[in-house]
Amino acid sequence: MSPPPSKLRKTAQPTYMIGHGRPPKPLVTVEQVQDHLQLLSAFHRLQATVEDGRDNRIPRSAMRMDRDSRWRWFIHLAINRFEKWVEALYFSPGQFLAKYHPPLDTRFHSSVSIAMEKLAAVWTSYLKDTTTNANLVRDGSVSRAESWYQLTGTLFDPFDAMTRPTYKQLQCPRCRTRVYVPFLSDNNTGYAENFVARCPLPSCRMRITHEALAVAKFVWDLNGKSTRHEHYIAGSLINSSGKRDHRRARLIKDQLIQTLQYSNRVPLALDGRLAKLRGSSEFTEAIGYSLKRLREAILATLRNYPASTSSRIISAYSDGGPFSVDLLDAVLRQSIFTEKMDELGWIRPELYQGERYQMLDHAILRYHAFLDLTASRPSAMFVPTLDIDLVWHTHQLMASRYGSDCELYVGRYLDHPLKVPEDSLSLALDETCLAWQLRYQVPYMQCGCALPDETSWQKCMRLVRQHLRGRTYLQVPLPPDLIPATHPSIHNAILT
Questions:
Q1: DSSP characters for 416-455?
Q2: How many angstroms separate the Cα of 180 from the Cα of each of 206, 208, 217, 381?
């Protein structure tokens, strides 16, 4: 990608101050944001093709669905393919990724679940490679397609793959018998739609639902041990300061094991763990495979921890998938963000050249200011605008570097919450606007949205700081094309 004409560059070097540190160069470049936008553009076209039913390989049963249901069905298929890809990476991480890129549908899940430690290193090398060639959104070559099929057992092209019957392999939560469920049947039932299944074992015949699978996943993790790595409860390793805390994770797991013995029907093994099969089964029976009762038990056990600890653990067990992120929900939320980028015109090819280059340059500058604001208020939750969120997402795609940058300049790992209650998000946005105004003496949003009122004290402090700090390094007014992107990014809101 050729750089913009020199006359479009800023005459003075921008200031990239974060806390007490000054990065020697921007943590994210314009070229990396452009590559990310190209990826979002490919995702957007893929979603439109599925929702509009514009490919004749889409099965009739899926064509009878409404647009939203068809997209959810497609995401379920893609998640299944993504799981197979992760399993292949686990056994041959560098060899496959260095030579063959995954299909487009599986990249969607990589981009929204990049915080998972298992994928961090391999995805970083993948993104690094894609930013230096034009293969980001092209179809797979013959060798790539063949290698993908050998390693995952599915066809490379997602639309070719859906022409073959696809089944989800599950384990019965009660007896662990393998169960194969179609993703979608002719009567609009299956793993992706109106899911209910029966264990095929005559002595069991358990009614299997997504809720039952989620509860079983928690109990199996509680009971699980690993010969290679210590086995923690999902969501317990990162503390409230954004740092890994192995001692705390071990303590949380031990407390959960001890407290959840509230039923005499849950026997213990000699090492203090839940008995491998009988104990797990009896515990899940004791709470009736109910997510509500499981959440109540977790909240009661961890009542002395910050609320975010329980919330993170509970959200990691919202479904029965192998990941600590609900990928279906995450992709749907990411789709909202991509739609906003499309509405702004930011995923169109003309953005990648000429004067609009400056717009991304300034978005990167605002992102560094956002990190600086976050470093100054460790306990606050600040809400990004769309332009800042785009650069933030781009930075997160470079997972290992993002973590080290956060530690070095912000002082902790800066998490990007997937779900925030609407009222909490509204209060956090008000706080962000006021904190930004006080620190930089410029409006946070210039999109026309109503700004929060200042108290007399806050107005006084703003005037004092303005006098002490002098001119801000942030540009006012903003480039015209950037103004709509200063609207708050709320794709992670939970409507109440």
A1: --S-EEHHHHHHHHHHHHHHHHHHHSS-S--SSPPPPPPP
A2: 14, 12, 17, 43
Instruction: List CB contacts of 126: < 8 A, sequence separation 6 or more.
Output: 97, 101, 110
- In this structure, the chain runs to a length of 496
| Lookup result for tokens 């930013």 | 131
Residues 6+ apart with CB under 8 A from 318: 214, 291, 326, 329
Closest CA to 215 of 327, 292, 330, 279: 292
Beta-carbon count within 10 A of 155 CB: 18
Point out which residues pair with 193 in neighbouring strands. Answer: 190
- E strand or H helix at 364, and its extent? helix 356-376
- Say what the alpha-carbon torsion angle 422, 428, 431, 432 is, to the nearest 10 degrees: -110
Q: What is the pLDDT of residues 80-110, one digit of tens each?
A: 888 888 887 765 555 555 555 666 655 554 4
pLDDT digit string (tens) for 205-243?
Answer: 999 999 999 998 998 888 776 555 678 898 888 776 667
Question: To the nearest 10°, the Cα dihedral for 245, 246, 251, 253?
Answer: 110
For residues 52 and 34, give the distance between their C-alpha atoms in angstroms, rounded to a whole number. Answer: 27
CA 219 to chain centre: 24
Which has the closest alpha carbon to 42: 135, 124, 125, 120? 135
Q: Are 256 and 262 in contact (CB under 8 A)?
A: no
